[in-house]
Structure formats: C-alpha cells, structure tokens
C-alpha cells in the first residue's frame, strides 16, 4: 500500500470522482446556513440536503466533497478511544437521481484497489450489506470481492426519520493480526463487529425510499447515492497508526503540546496520552469553529466552543501546562490543514485573540469552580457523608468544565468518594435530551416530484427590464397540481418563459407587481416569487380574472417597491464593506434582509460595536454616497471574478458563471440581486440600531433615502422637544443645558443622601439603645424610613462597630412595590449555630422576596411592603425557637 499524507489522500479522493464526472463541492462553513435543524454541519451530506429533498436541483447531479464537520454528542469519549473526535472530515461522493448501485460499488473498488489511486490490497477489503439487498451483494462479487469477504448485517439500513432512507454497504480494511484485540472465536471478531482489527473506512448509502410521515417506505422517484469516508480513519490505515492520533493530522499538535509541558511525552503513560489527545482534538475544533465565525458564549454553538476550550485547558494543567497555551496551537492547526483550508492561517491572528480572551476568562471561572468544589468537600466532611453527590459532580462538569476524573482526584486527596452512579444518571439524562432533539430535527424533507420534474425554460430579465410586454404563461399550479388555468379568487403558482420579477434570494425579498392581459386588464397580482428546484422563478399570484397556460401576458414590476429595495440592497453591500474596513476582515456575513422599508445585516463580531465605530461606519457610507460612485455589474467566471477582488459568501454555491456587482472601486461582491445605478440615488444612510442576536453575532438595522431623512427629522423634532423642556435658546444649546441639569441633580442627590444618613444615624441611636431579649439573645428588629439598601448596610456597619445586639433585622419600604431587607449576626450568635442566611430565608418570603448571604450578613429584596410587620414578627418567632 502507498505511503500517503492526509492532504494527498483527500486530493486523490476528490480527483478520482472528478474523473467520473463529479463536481467538487467546496467544504462549507461549520455554521449551517438556512438550516435551523442543525447546530453544526455534522456530516458530508448535511450541506447537500437541499438537493436530496428536491428543493433545489443541482447543475451537476454528481457531486463530491471533503466536508469539515463537528459532532459533540460523545465529547466525554474523546481522548479515551482511538477514533472519537469533535472535528472531523468526511469525504463523500453523491448522486442526486443519477447513478446507483451498479456504478458506485465498482467505483469504490477501483478507488481503493487501483495502483493509479489508493492501491490497497484487495485481500484486505471486506464489505457488509443489508440481508434483503442481494443486488448489492451480487454487484460486489461481480466487481471482484470474494463472496466470503461479504457479511450480511441487519443494521445496514440508513434511516434517520422522515425523508430519504435505504440500505447501505460498509467497507472494512483488515489491519492485520497485530491489531487484533479479541480472540478468533469472539462473536464480535468479524468485519462489522466491535474490534480493532477490521476498521470501517467507508459507508455507501443507497437512498431509494421515502420514509413518509405515516411511517411507511415508498420508492423514491429519483434514487440517490450518499457515501461517507472519514479522512481521519483512512489516514490511520495509510500511515499504519494504531489510533487516528498517531497521524499527520494530530501529531504536530501533540508535539507542540509536549514542548509546553513539564517534560511529559506522548506515549509515556496512558493517562497523560488522554490529555494530549483531548488537547489535539479540541484545538482543531475550536480553531475551525472560530475561523468560521462562531464565538464562545453560554448558549448554542458558543457553549460548545467554550466547553471544548475549557476541557483542553484542564487537560493542559494535567500535563503541567499553565497560562494561555492554546493560542500557540492555532497556527499549528493552520499549517496542517493549509492545503485545503488556507483561511485558517489567514484568520490565525483573529482566532488567537478570541482563544486568548477565553482562556483568560476561564482562569477566573476555574477559580470559582475550585472554590465551589472546596466548599462541597468541606460540607461533605462536616456532615461526615463521605461522598460528593453525583449532581454536584455533574454541575462541576457541565458548568465549570471539570471532567469527572478531576473532581474524583480532588475528592480522593481529601479521603472522599464521588457518586459515580448519580453522575452517570445526570449525564445520561443530558444525552437523552440531546438525542431526542437530534431525532426530532435531523430528517430531510420529502421530495416534491411536481417541482423537481418541472423543466420549463424560464429567463429572468429584471436586471435590465422591469416590464415584459409578451411573456408566455407556461405552467399553472393550483393546490399542488398542474392545471391549464386558474380562475378569479384562486391563489396559484405560475411560471412564465421570461420574467422581470426578482425571486427572493440572498436576503432580498421578491418583487411585487401585476400580470396584465391583452386588453390591459390586471388579471393577477404577484405577491411573492421563489426559485423552483430547477431554477425557474415561481410566482405566487392572487388571481383576479381567469389566466390560462399558453396565453401571453404583460408583466409589470411595481417600480416604487423595486427601487426602494434596490437602494437598500446597494446600501447592504456598502455596509458589509465598511464593517470589514473599520472592524476588520474577520467580520463575516451571518445573514441579511433587504426590504423596501429598511435593511438588516447580521455579522460575526465578538462584543457590541462601540458607538464611535458605528459613527465611523455611518460616515464612511455617507461619504461614498456623496462621491456618487457608479454601480455596475458584469457576468464572468469565478476565477476572473476573484481577480476583480470580488467577495464571495463562503456558504453560497456558485455556478460556472457568476455576477459581480461593483460599487466604484470601493466594493465588489458576488451577487445576483438588484441595485441602483449610482450611490447618489441613496441620498442618505442612517443606522437605526445595533444589537446582539446570538453567540458572537451582531445585527445592524439601517434605512436609506426618504426613510433616513424621515428618521433624521424625527430625531430633530425630539431634540427640539428636549431643548424646549430645558429652556435652551437654540437647539445647539440643549446639551449644555442638559449637562447643567444633571450636575444640579447630582448635587441634590448628594444632599438627600447626607440628610438620609443623618436621619438614619438618629434612628439608629434610638433603635440600637433598646434591644429586645428573646430566648436569651438580644434582638434589634425595626422598619426604617430610608431610600435603599446602601443606607441599611451603613446602619448594619454601625451596629457591628457598637456591638449593639446579637441579631439585627432591618427592613425598609423603598417604593410602592419594593422592599429592602438586611439581617446580621454577631460572632456570639454564629457560635450558637445561627446564620443570617437561615433567618433571611424565613422572613424574606413574607415581603415577596428571597435572598441569601454569609453567616454574618445577608440581604434580600421584596415586592410586598404590606408584609413588613409580619416579617418582623417572624424574625422574633424564629429567634424564640433558636
């Protein structure tokens, strides 16, 4: 067998299928686009779902790819097994209703065994098939695989719920006697069993059924092929590695980690090897995820990144690596993957900055986790329980990133155990929740045969013409069925041989307008336009008067609506460019919406955009509007477009010809939308607001032209109202007047606070002089007239200095529905077993609140002032019982 690098193996796979007429689909972003069912792209087919469910018909029905993917459902196994990973690459070849079993099986055999390609020994290859799929077994034998190398396995049926499903065949490689970990007679010692000798390297799914909502299986009108070959697995075969980690995909990262540790080497010890593997795996996943625009946070994708990063840091500590070491692994990952993913090295500086900030943040979190663990240990010892509860260990793992093993180590050092059964139960419950979510959300849609088989020629002319005088109505669809006409009152979907109506795409909403007959009558109103699977513009129309297939109509786009949308689309391109110019090239588009009223642009950015940066962005766009830049477009090939400096959205699929829209020399982008001819047509650009909408994703909303002017006028009117209220002679004097009023307010507040302090001291003098004796303890409990918790805390400080009583309870009504409450205990009271937190939990509910604190001091807030007297009585009763 050949000695091949990971880059050569990937390249050879893609080139082989390219030689069989496949188009190479670039690896898409790990962040799914237009697919809310996925948290991450988790397989090679995940980015192709639109083709398999028939919502889009590809230009070439033969596709191949090497797709980066992330799965974290078995994260705790990473490092402990030979082949569990969070980030991995899946290579595959796909047929969308083109070839099937007779082609794909011989091709698989050719790629694996031909000296021109992988050159594997045919005697080392085995296959499993579904027992009822005798066609696959027969084709394997005819292709050259010995019959005794083929096993029938009931599990060989791929089905994830509603949508395409079918039997599959798995291919295994015999790694030899040295890898055999089970005796020959073991029932798992066969290709397809749980053993290390026979390694699965490829799975080919024959997607031939629709799994319907009624839970039946119907033959697909267009049968598909979906295959997956894990790059990490097959590289381990070519590089004779016992696990995936002893390959060129991971070893450089492991060696770098060795350099930073305390002298520990990979291979020295099984436990430290786990840490090296975790670090190598997680460094890859975190680097790629951040490169694709995800950012650490407490939810969704951001939580996954945070958890992986923290897990790696903890394992770094086990190796004696302290400080922010993961940043040093980012360029190592980039160099390993540079041949196919050059963007990682290009973004390395930005990725390192995000990783460094998160590592620094985790140091504080780690300290908090250790404090919690130490507190739990102290509590368990005090109660002489001997065991840390499983739910506590799980919280340390889930919230603070502490692996169970780390908690167990700390516990053992203190002579304690950890409830492993309880921990496993909590972990299993989490897995069950995740599995249920995946089962509900993973399926593809069922193919719509009518639309996928609709091959009418339809041309879009709206870039140059907003009216077509003679468009032939080719197809009419009513209630999901083809018809020859539609009558008044119906909603119908129609296709014309040519159309000026823009179909919703790239965030730009569809055009609106009218369908007019030869008599000049408006016979239908166009309410929406979408792209059909084969690319036609599918118009949704409200029929006002009968329309017939084959008749000729005039199509007229609503010009006012179209122009407003075009202005906002041009402004969106200018905003995109301005963000990159001012915030940095690492800001990438995460979504957009272009309407007549406003534009919305989502982008990746770590934190809120500072106000001064927003001002710069707004000023830059208005400068470019003032420069009256020409907006032009050209249709060309992808390479020529890139030479023009055009920016491509990495999640988009582009054909052989692309349209590049240029705004002077300021911006050039791949784009199929509509635009103005000159930036001066926008008149004015105004940002309405900036906000966060998710982990590491920000949103800017803005308006242009008349809408921007109206917004500015509204702001001017509001400012004038403020100027009038503060009696400013002119609008420009309003800020000075407001500042003077603020200073005056601060001085008045200072005086109020001073008076309150004096009153509080006077009240304290009378209250502290008369403590009540309750059950042998002195109690001061009173309601005070103060404005807030600060005054209560001040009085508690005075109480402590003067040692006025054993127990203090102070309550104040600080608003119509607001109560502040403070409880304090003297050292003598604490020694007697009383705690402020216990008392406050008793009295706070009576004023509609809750609270907590230290044994010597606790505070709470409430919403029920009418319960104050009851709370004071409850404090008296509580002390009487203690």
TrEMBL record:
It comes from the Bacteria. The keyword Protein biosynthesis applies. Pfam families: DHHA1, tRNA-synt_2c, tRNA_SAD. Keywords: Aminoacyl-tRNA synthetase, ATP-binding, Coiled coil, Cytoplasm, Ligase, Nucleotide-binding, Protein biosynthesis, RNA-binding, tRNA-binding. It catalyses: tRNA(Ala) + L-alanine + ATP = L-alanyl-tRNA(Ala) + AMP + diphosphate. InterPro entries: aa-tRNA-synth_II/BPL/LPL, Ala-tRNA-lgiase_IIc, Ala-tRNA-ligase_IIc_anticod-bd, Ala-tRNA-synth_IIc_core, Ala-tRNA-synth_IIc_N, Ala-tRNA_ligase, Ala_tRNA_ligase_euk/bac, DHHA1_dom. One of its GO terms (cellular component) is cytosol. Its main location: cytoplasm. Belongs to the class-II aminoacyl-tRNA synthetase family. This is Alanine--tRNA ligase.
């Amino acid at each position: 067998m050949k000695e091949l690098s990971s880059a050569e193996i990937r390249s050879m796979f893609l080139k082989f299928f390219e030689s069989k007429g496949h188009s190479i689909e670039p690896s898409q972003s790990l962040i799914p686009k237009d697919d809310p069912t996925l948290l991450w792209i988790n397989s090679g087919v995940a980015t192709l779902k639109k083709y398999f469910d028939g919502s889009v018909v590809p230009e070439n029905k033969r596709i191949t790819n090497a797709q980066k993917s992330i799965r974290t459902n078995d994260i705790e196994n990473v490092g402990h097994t030979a082949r569990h990973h969070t980030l991995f690459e899946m290579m595959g070849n796909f047929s969308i209703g083109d070839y099937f079993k007779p082609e794909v099986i011989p091709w698989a055999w050719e790629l694996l065994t031909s000296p021109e390609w992988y050159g594997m020994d045919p005697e080392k290859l085995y296959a499993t098939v579904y027992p009822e799929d005798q066609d696959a077994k027969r084709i394997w034998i005819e292709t050259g695989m010995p019959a005794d190398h083929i096993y029938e396995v009931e599990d060989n049926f791929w089905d994830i719920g509603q949508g395409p499903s079918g039997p599959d065949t798995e291919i295994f490689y015999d790694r030899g006697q040295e890898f055999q970990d089970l005796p020959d007679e073991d029932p798992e010692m066969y290709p397809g069993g749980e053993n290390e000798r026979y390694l699965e390297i490829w799975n080919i799914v024959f997607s031939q059924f629709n799994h319907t909502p009624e839970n039946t299986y119907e033959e697909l009108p267009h049968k598909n092929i979906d295959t997956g070959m894990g790059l990490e697995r097959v590289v381990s075969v070519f590089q004779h590695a016992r696990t995936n980690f002893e390959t060129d995909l991971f070893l450089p990262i492991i060696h770098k980690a060795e350099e930073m540790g305390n002298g520990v080497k990979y291979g020295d010890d099984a436990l430290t090897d786990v840490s090296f593997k975790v670090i190598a795996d997680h460094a890859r996943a975190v680097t790629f995820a951040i490169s694709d625009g995800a950012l650490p946070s407490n939810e969704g994708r951001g939580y996954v990144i945070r958890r992986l990063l923290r897990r790696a840091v903890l394992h770094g500590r086990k190796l004696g690596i302290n400080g922010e070491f993961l940043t040093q692994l980012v360029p190592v990952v980039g160099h390993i993957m540079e041949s196919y993913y050059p963007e990682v090295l290009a973004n390395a500086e930005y990725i390192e900055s995000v990783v460094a900030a998160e590592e620094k943040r985790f140091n504080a979190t780690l300290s908090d986790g250790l404090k919690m663990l130490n507190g739990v240990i102290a509590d368990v010892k005090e109660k002489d329980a001997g065991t840390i509860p499983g739910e506590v260990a799980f919280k340390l793992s889930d919230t603070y990133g502490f692996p169970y093993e780390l908690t167990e180590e700390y516990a053992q050092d203190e002579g304690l155990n950890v409830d492993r059964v309880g921990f496993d139960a909590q972990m299993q419950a989490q897995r069950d929740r995740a599995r249920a979510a995946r089962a509900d959300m993973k399926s593809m849609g069922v193919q719509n045969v009518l639309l996928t088989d609709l091959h009418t020629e339809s041309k879009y002319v709206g870039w140059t013409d907003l009216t077509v005088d003679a468009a032939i109505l080719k197809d009419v669809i009513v209630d999901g069925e083809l018809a020859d006409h539609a009558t008044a009152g119906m909603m119908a979907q129609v296709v014309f041989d040519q159309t000026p109506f823009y179909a919703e795409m790239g965030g730009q909403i569809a055009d609106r307008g009218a369908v007019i007959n030869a008599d000049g009558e408006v016979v239908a109103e166009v309410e929406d336009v979408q792209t059909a699977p084969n690319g036609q513009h599918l118009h949704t129309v409200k029929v006002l008067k009968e329309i017939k297939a084959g008749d000729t109509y005039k199509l007229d786009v609503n010009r006012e609506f179209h122009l407003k949308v075009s202005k906002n689309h041009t402004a969106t391109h200018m905003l995109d460019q301005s963000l990159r110019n001012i915030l940095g090239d690492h800001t990438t588009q995460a979504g957009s919406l272009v309407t007549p009223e406003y534009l919305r642009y989502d982008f990746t950015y770590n934190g809120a955009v500072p106000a001064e940066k927003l001002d710069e962005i707004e000023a830059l766009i208005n400068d470019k509007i003032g420069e009256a830049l020409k907006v032009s477009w050209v249709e060309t090939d992808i390479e020529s477009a890139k030479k023009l400096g055009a920016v491509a959205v990495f999640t988009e699929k582009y054909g052989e010809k692309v349209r590049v829209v240029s705004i002077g020399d300021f911006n050039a982008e791949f784009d199929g939308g509509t635009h103005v001819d000159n930036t001066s047509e926008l008149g004015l650009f105004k940002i309405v607001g900036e906000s966060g909408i998710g982990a590491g994703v920000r949103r800017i909303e803005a308006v242009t032209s008349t809408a921007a002017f109206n917004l500015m006028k509204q702001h001017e009117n509001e400012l004038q109202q403020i100027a009038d209220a503060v009696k400013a002679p002119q609008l420009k004097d309003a800020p000075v007047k407001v500042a003077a009023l603020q200073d005056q307010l601060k001085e008045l507040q200072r005086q109020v606070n001073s008076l309150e302090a004096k009153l509080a001291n006077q009240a304290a003098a009378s209250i502290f002089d008369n403590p009540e004796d309750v059950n042998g303890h002195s109690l001061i409990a009173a309601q005070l007239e103060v404005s807030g918790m600060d005054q209560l805390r001040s009085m508690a400080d005075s109480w402590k200095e003067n040692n006025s009583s054993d127990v203090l309870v102070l309550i104040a009504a600080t608003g119509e529905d607001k109560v502040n409450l403070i409880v304090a205990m003297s050292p003598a009271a604490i020694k007697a077993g009383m705690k402020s937190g216990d008392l406050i939990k008793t009295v706070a509910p009576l004023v509609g609140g809750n609270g907590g604190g230290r044994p010597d001091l606790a505070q709470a807030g409430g919403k029920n002032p009418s319960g104050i007297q009851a709370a004071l009585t409850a404090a008296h009763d509580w002390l009487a019982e203690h």
